[in-house]
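This part of the workshop introduces the protein records we will be handling. As an example, a complete record with its sequence and its structure tokens follows.
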Amino acid sequence: MHEKGIETFLAVAMSRTLGKAAELLSVTQSTISYNLNELENDMGMILVDRQKGMKSIKLTPAGESFLPLALKWQEISREIANARTPGSAYSLAVGGSESVNCRLLPPVYGALLEHEPPVYLRIVTDPSDMMYQAVESRALDAAIVIHEESARYVQMEPIYREGFIVARIPNDGEETAEYLRPTDLDQGMEFYIEWSGGYRLWHDHIWDPMKTLKVKVDSIKLATLLMRRPGQWCMIPESARAQFMSEQPRAVFCRLHETPPDIIYYKLTHRHPKTSSAAALAIFDEVLKRRITELGGKTGIK
């Protein structure tokens, strides 16, 4: 059986485009086409309908029938690979955004590294949209994200929520207040992070959506590096206070009277997880629950 062809077929089946499949496997589109052709020739049937002009491709009836077998082949292949490595009974591939991996999950990763029997970890840091693709293609066993999307084979579970605070650079001699009103903040001095669609709607309701934002950043780390002038500010999750304070000692923190919607963290897993990952996923769930309990606050998602 053409092993690269099956891997390519699975990537195409999950991503539904040759381009995304090529990105997922870090190969060229011509390699994707070649591997598919080799697999189809080997099997004597067409698995993927890839007519010109189609924005996305779809599986043929033969491809739909072959998909469960291909997934099973992938699982067995990984089990065989694990069996060849002594002591690798538990292995887990986990992903998250920079803010998740650097703020929420380090205690989880630390506990997994100390676990007996050992859990062999592969940790990936990427944007949320890439996490969905990676879980759907089984490149990751689990991921924690803050953006809600729809994916055919991904199971999404809300696991934790927290509120926001304002981090800002005060004026010299300023007496800081515990609460501020949005009108107390200069929109032109904001370092904007788009935390979610709900957050964007709230922001547009509070401040003028027609006004061009002067600075948009995609991480708290970047905001701490760039915020220097008095009056500059950024909305951050409550759990980011310690990180922000250590990286920008001049910052002060307060809450808004009109608060944005909470940030919600979602755990992503495949709807049909690999049997070989079941034990490691159970350990991950147990450690993750302990971490959420330690954080306190709003652990119940309604």
User: Anything to note?
Assistant: DSSP finds eleven helices and 13 strands in the chain.
